[in-house]
Specification:
The chain has 339 residues and is α+β, with helices and mostly antiparallel strands. The chain has 2 domains: 208 residues, Jelly Rolls; 104 residues, Homeodomain-like (Arc Repressor Mutant, subunit A), CATH 1.10.10. The strands form 3 sheets. The protein has a 7-stranded antiparallel beta sheet with strand order 1-3-4-11-6-9-12, sandwiched between helices. It has a 4-stranded antiparallel beta sheet with strand order 2-5-10-7. The chain has a two-stranded antiparallel ribbon with strand order 8-13. α1 packs across α12 and α3 runs antiparallel to α5. The longest helix has 21 residues. The N terminus and C terminus are likely disordered.
Length: 339
């Protein structure tokens, strides 16, 4: 299938992000919120391969994080995990084995990525995806949902072959000279042909034969608790009040939070507040009085306690965030290539 349009090829070689916001600002295809659950520097690395219709992101995170993610660009995101022994915790469904998530534009997922998690996301534009559905004759029953995420379960053979091909693509990309590729007419053809001939046949085979596996829906109690706790960060309800609202017991809430998030409800709201403070400080870089204003808005009235808790989680002082690049500046530097 020859492509008629031209595409600029983009290769960002193993970018490393010390701050979560630097990573999320550089991802154009996602509406992504990341909340750090473990203390320490975030330390995120990725390799980005991108054209207008296809994008690969090879990622490795060194901190346990809660991701609230939605694909924001028309098309489908396929998410693969590389670390078999570190299964992500999907807060919407019970999954205890390797899976491929297909996320259409606008669909939201909430997942806890464990410390040391490695994965790959593959974006295919709407137009290209449906062209390939016809090409590979994907049955109607195997098509992903257009308004919520779909989970596919590859068998062991499919999983190994797919990961082997994805990693081979990464090694090949690391040997590519981006400057040489940029002079080729329709430079995106390189990535397009590899995806079409090598990756897509394996992926569509999984979609055709691995979509009938069942997974158990998770209780809405935990998700409802998170929504209530994070609605008013200045004065969230107590664990007893929250249990009464949700018609459950404080003990059950403690169990749900510890099992799926690794923290108690009280610890979660503290971590969430600090993460929101980090994001607000990132957005208000250079604004006088920003640290005290942000702290007060989130219910911190003792600046010493706020700074101490902030530094324990992120290993940085709140004021350190005021001297970082703004999100628009980072996007121009990393994605567009301005210096």
């Amino acid at each position: 299938m020859a492509r008629k349009d031209t595409d600029a090829f983009c290769l960002v070689e193993q970018s490393r992000y010390e701050f979560i916001d630097e990573h999320t600002s550089a991802l154009r295809n996602w509406d992504l919120d990341v909340y750090q659950l473990d203390s320490g520097p975030y330390d995120f690395s990725e390799l980005l391969l991108s054209t207008a219709d296809i994008q690969y992101i090879y990622l490795h995170t060194v901190r346990r994080v809660l991701n609230r993610a939605a694909a924001s660009r028309p098309g489908f995101q396929f998410c693969f995990q590389l670390t078999e022994d570190l299964l992500p915790v999907n807060l919407h469904a019970e999954i205890n084995r390797p899976a491929i998530w297909c996320i259409p534009a606008g669909s939201e997922v909430e997942v806890v990525l464990p410390n040391g998690f490695q994965g790959i996301t593959l974006y295919l534009s709407d137009t290209l995806f449906y062209q390939w559905c016809d090409l590979f004759r994907l049955s109607r029953t195997s098509l992903p949902s257009g308004n919520e995420y779909t989970i596919y379960f590859p068998d062991e053979r499919q999983q190994k072959r797919l990961i082997r091909m994805l990693m081979a693509l990464k090694r090949l990309a690391q040997r590519v000279d981006p400057c040489a590729i940029s002079h080729i007419q329709d430079s995106g053809l390189w990535l397009h042909e590899i995806t079409l001939n090598e990756i897509a046949p394996l992926l569509f085979d999984v979609m055709e034969n691995g979509s009938d596996a069942k997974y158990r829906a998770r209780s809405e109690t935990l998700l409802s608790a998170i929504r209530i706790l994070t609605f008013d960060l200045d004065s969230p309800p107590s664990i007893e009040e929250l249990a009464a609202i949700l018609s459950t017991t404080p003990r059950n809430l403690q169990y749900l939070f510890r099992r799926h998030l690794g923290v108690t409800p009280k610890q979660f709201i503290q971590l969430y507040r600090l993460n929101e403070a980090r994001r607000s400080l990132w957005r208000t870089a250079g604004v006088s009085g920003a640290v005290s204003n942000v702290a007060n808005q989130l219910g911190y009235w003792h600046m010493g306690d706020f700074s101490r808790q902030f530094r324990t989680l992120f290993h940085k002082l709140p004021s350190d965030y005021l001297h970082r690049e703004s999100a628009p500046e980072l996007i121009r530097r990393v994605i567009i290539g301005e210096t």
